[in-house]
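#lab-general

N.A. 3:47 PM
ok so I finally got the sequence cleaned up, no stray characters, all 204 residues accounted for. can someone with queue access submit it? mine expired

B.Y. 3:52 PM
send it over

N.A. 3:53 PM
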Amino acid sequence: MLQVFGMLENKFKKLLAVAIIGAAIVACSSTKPPEQAPAAEPTPAPAPVIASAPVVASAPVATVSNHNSVYFAFDKYDIRDDYNGLIKSNSDYLAASAPAKVQVQGNTDDIGSVEYNLALGQRRADAVKKALIADGASPSQIEAISNGKLKPKYANDTGTSRAQNRRSDIMYMSGQPQGYSEDSNGLPMIDSNMYSGTVIEGIE
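B.Y. 4:20 PM
back already:
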């Protein structure tokens, strides 16, 4: 009886060992990472449609006024064609009114030395004087002086205000035309009785 029991026990141990080995093999094979399916080729995204922004013209820095003044570009003293009508209106009035006298005051912005700007302001005043004479005014009616940068009417703290300081003012000292006045800054003004055109206030 004991012999039979021992034989059964040996068979049971063998079966148990086979079961353990089989379970281990199955367990090992189940830990193998699953194979991934090959990644699909990515579909290229359509190119975004970008609407072109409309081109917006920048507004001019200069403003239009009725100052009786000729404005100049930086470090220049040549008179631009924009001011020919203003010059002609003043010279016609001077030619027709002998008692009328003007003082042309040349001005600059604050860039550069006092001496340089006094000389530049004088060249600007002389240019306007010559233009007035060329259009018929008498030399005895016109005095040309320079303030340089010493009497600015504007702050000189922006490009616009500097451009407004680069001027020759035609100031009537006697025999003022109808509609002539001075603004709060002391700049000469004329109305449509004298000149019906526009004056560009400042050249960049």
